[in-house]
Amino acid sequence: MAQASSKKVNLYTDGSCLGNPGPGGYGAILDFKGHRKELSQGFNLTTNNRMELLAVIEGLAALKAPCRVTVYSDSEYVVKAMKGGWPQKWQRNDWKRKGNKPAVNPDLWGRLLALCETHEVQFVWVRGHSGHPENERCDRLANEAARSEALVLDEGYASV
User: Fold this and answer.
1) Does pLDDT of 109 surpass 60?
2) pTM for the full model?
3) Which residue in 27, 45, 57, 146 has the fewest CB atoms around it within 10 Å?
C-alpha cells in the first residue's frame, strides 16, 4: 500500500499510435502547485494501449518521492482496469485473465502496479478530443513523439 503523502500531484496522460501496431508515442504532464513538467517519447513499433499505459508509468516514475496523484486519462482501457482492480487479479493469477487467457501487456501492468505501491493513485477518465486543455496538450505531445526521428524500441512489444 502506498505511503500517505502531503504532496498532491495531477498527472495528465495520453498515448498515440500511427496504425495499431505502428509508430507510437506518449505524452504526460505533471502538475504540482502550478509547476509543470512535460514528458514524451516515441517508439518505432508499438500499440496505442501500450502508449496509454506508458504515459501513466513514466509520469509516476518521474516523481522523486511518494505523492498523492490524480491521473487524468482518456484511456478507458487504463482507467476501467485500474478502477476495477483487474491488473491485480491478473497478477495474482500469473497474468491470466478470465478463461485462462493471457493478460495483454503484463510487463507494463506490472510496472504500473509497482508504482501504485509507492504513490497513492486515483484514476479519472476524461473524454478525449473534447477541449480539455491538458488532455489536448498530451495528445499533441504523444503524436509529435510518434512522428519524431528519435523513435526507440518498445522492448516489451518487440518481445511478443
Assistant:
1) yes
2) 0.95
3) 45
